[in-house]
Specification:
single chain, about 300 residues
C-alpha cells in the first residue's frame, strides 16, 4: 500500500510525461497529414471528433458552474482552437523539430503567467530553468537576426512558421492557465471541455475553411483518411492526459514535462521523415531535456516533503 500511495502521488508527473510522448506522435501525424491535406481541414476533423464526448458529460455538475466558470470554459476552448490552427499550420512552413521546440516555449509563458494570474510558486531556480529552456528554443529555431540566412532554406517561410508556432505557444500557455483555474475552482469536467471545443471549433474552422480560405486540399484517399483519424485520436488522448496531469501539478511543471515532445520530435524527424538537423538544434533540444529532468526531480522533491 505505501508503494501504491507513493505512485499515486506522482501520477501527475507520469501523465504529463506520457502526454508529451503522445503529443509527439500526434505531431508526427500532423506532419504526414499536412503534406497532402490542408491544416484547416485537419483541425475541422479534430474538433468534430470532440462531439463523441457528449455521453460522458457529468450533467450533475451543472448547478455548480458560475457565469465565470462558463466564460472560462468558452475562453479555454477558443484558445485551443487558436492553438491548433497556428500550431498545425506551422508544420507546413518549418520542419518538425523546430516547430515543436517553438511551440513548447510555452513553458516560459506558463511559468510567468501562472505566477502572475494564479499565484503559483515561482522561485529563482524556476527563473533560471526557464531562461535555459528559452535558450534551447533559440538554438532550435535559429532566428535570422541571430544566425543569419545560411541556415534557412526560405527565410520568409521560416518567419511565418516561427510566428505561427510562437502564437501557438502563447495560446497553449493561456489555455493551461484556464484549465488550472477550473481545477482549483472544482468546476471541471473533461467531457464538457471537449464538447465545448467542438461547439466553438467547428464553426470557426468551417468559416475559415469554406469562406476565408477556400483553396484547400481535402481528404481524397484512404491513406489520407487514415492519417487524419490517427492524428485526431492521438490528439484527443494527449489532451486528456494533459488535463489529468493539471489536476495535481502546476502549469509550468506540466508544460515542462510535456516538452519531452521536443526531443522525441527530433528523433522522429530523423527516423521517419528523413529531415536534416544540425548541432545547434540538437544542442537546444538537449537543454530543453535537461530542464525537463530538473522539473521531474523538483516535482518528486515537493511531493515527498
Amino acid at each position: 500500500m505505501p508503494l501504491l500511495s507513493q505512485l499515486q502521488q506522482f501520477r501527475g508527473l507520469f501523465f504529463a510525461l506520457l502526454s508529451g510522448v503522445v503529443w509527439s506522435v500526434n505531431a508526427l501525424g500532423v506532419v504526414l497529414t499536412v503534406e497532402t491535406v490542408s491544416p484547416t481541414v485537419l483541425c475541422f476533423a479534430f474538433f468534430l471528433c470532440n462531439i463523441f464526448a457528449v455521453p460522458f458529460i457529468n450533467w450533475d455538475l451543472n448547478n455548480s458552474y458560475t457565469s465565470v466558470h462558463m466564460l472560462t470554459i468558452f475562453v479555454s476552448s477558443l484558445l485551443d482552437v487558436t492553438l491548433l490552427l497556428t500550431a498545425y499550420s506551422s508544420f507546413a512552413f518549418i520542419n518538425f523539430g523546430n516547430a515543436s521546440a517553438l511551440i513548447y516555449s510555452k513553458t516560459l509563458f506558463c511559468g510567468v503567467l501562472g505566477w502572475l494570474i494564479l499565484g503559483e510558486r515561482f522561485s529563482k531556480l524556476d527563473l533560471l530553468l526557464l531562461v535555459i529552456h528559452f535558450g534551447g528554443v533559440i538554438l532550435v529555431s535559429q532566428p535570422e537576426f541571430l544566425f543569419g540566412q545560411q541556415n534557412l532554406v526560405d527565410p520568409t517561410s521560416n518567419l511565418i512558421g516561427c510566428t505561427l508556432a510562437l502564437a501557438g505557444a502563447l495560446s497553449s500557455s493561456l489555455e493551461f492557465i484556464t484549465l488550472r483555474y477550473l481545477v482549483e475552482s472544482q468546476a471541471f469536467d473533461t467531457a464538457l471541455l471537449l464538447f465545448t471545443k467542438c461547439v466553438v471549433g467547428v464553426p470557426v474552422v468551417a468559416t475559415l475553411s469554406f469562406y476565408i480560405m477556400p483553396a484547400h486540399r481535402y481528404i481524397r484517399t484512404l491513406t489520407e483518411l487514415g492519417y487524419v483519424a490517427f492524428t485526431c485520436f492521438s490528439g484527443l488522448l494527449a489532451y486528456g492526459l494533459t488535463v489529468i496531469a493539471l489536476r495535481t501539478e502546476d502549469t509550468k511543471t506540466v508544460a515542462a514535462l510535456v516538452s519531452v515532445e521536443v526531443v522525441l520530435s527530433f528523433v522522429f524527424q530523423i527516423t521517419f521523415i528523413g529531415e536534416n538537423t544540425d548541432w545547434f538544434s540538437v544542442s537546444g533540444a538537449i537543454l530543453i531535456l535537461l530542464v525537463l529532468l530538473v522539473y521531474c526531480g523538483e516535482g518528486i522533491y515537493y511531493q515527498n516533503r
